[in-house]
Amino acid sequence: AQKVTQAQTEISVVEKEDVTLDCVYETRDTTYYLFWYKQPPSGELVFLIRRNSFDEQNEISGRYSWNFQKSTSSFNFTITASQVVDSAVYFCALSDVNQAGTALIFGKGTTLSVSS
Amino acid sequence: ETGVTQSPTHLIKTRGQQVTLRCSSQSGHNTVSWYQQALGQGPQFIFQYYREEENGRGNFPPRFSGLQFPNYSSELNVNALELDDSALYLCASSFRSGATLATDTQYFGPGTRLTVL
Fold first, then answer.
1. Environment class of A91 (CB within 10 Å of its CB; exposed 0-12, middle 13-18, buried 19+)
2. How far is A83 from chain B (nearest CA, A)?
3. Given its phi and psi angles, is residue A84 left (phi above 0), alpha (psi -120 to 50 degrees) or beta?
4. In Å, how far are A14, A30, B95 from B99, measured between CA atoms?
5. Chain A closest CA to B23's CA: distance in Å?
6. Among residues B53, B51, B55, B42, which one has the least CA distance to residue B90?
7. Across the interface, do A104 and B43 touch by the CB < 8 Å criterion?
8. What's the whole-number mean pLDDT along residues B92-111?
9. Tens-digit pLDDT profile for residues B35-91
10. Hey, are the CB atoms on A33 and B103 less than 8 Å from each other?
11. pLDDT tens-digit readout, A19-78
12. Searching chain A, which residue's CA lies closest to the CA of residue B109?
């Protein structure tokens, strides 16, 4: 069955600390996509990254970086030099592509609190 | 570029009532997906609409139904509301090209907070 596990429910850090959010997934598909979304208190899910199963290169975007490892079915997200504005709930998601459409399967999310 | 919009922002209903939530997709997008997010949980897929037809459905009962209009906007209807239907309802739009089932990125709206009393 398709599943995403975010074992860290809550993480608290102080500004400028680095923090890594873990994501482990299960899928029967050979081709799939992984995503990270950020949900600030306003509620809207903000897209951060999409990665397909054939591209295991790590990606860096400013203070954000992602480590995709198929061997361990993990897609971890690191924020370098965290800031208060990074405080939010972060969701990892997996595509479920069936014949009829495409659903995203989300983990339960990790709440990140960054204090000044 | 206009993002995904949803209305209303908040809604309070009582058990047994019916509700309609609305979503306008992002400019250039032709596919709409709906998700239910209970408090403290990740979003759960309800269904997806493409070319005005339901195009995939999650584990939700038939009292959850939807529509997609020619301008790609969409409605989510929930009949016979139950207390457990209280949640944030998120709409997401994406672009799908033809028959390809490539997973296009879904962009989300701000959601509608539904409270059932």
1. buried
2. 23
3. alpha
4. 48, 19, 12
5. 13
6. B42
7. yes
8. 82
9. 999 999 999 999 999 889 998 899 999 999 999 999 999 999 999 999 999 999 999
10. yes
11. 999 999 999 888 889 999 999 998 899 999 999 888 888 889 999 999 999 999 999 999
12. A44
Q: Which residue of B has its CA nearest to A4?
A: B42
* Closest-CA distance of chain A to residue B35, Å: 9
B113 contacts in A (CB within 8 Å)?
43
Question: What pLDDT is stored for residue A97 in this prediction?
Answer: 72
The token pair at B96 is: 């799908």
As beta bridge partners, residue A3 has A26
pLDDT of residue B98: 67
The more confidently predicted of residues B30 and B104 is B30
**Residue type for A63, please?**
R
Contact B108 A95 (CB under 8 A): no
pLDDT at B102: 56
Judged by a CB distance cut-off of 8 A, whether residue A50 touches chain B is yes
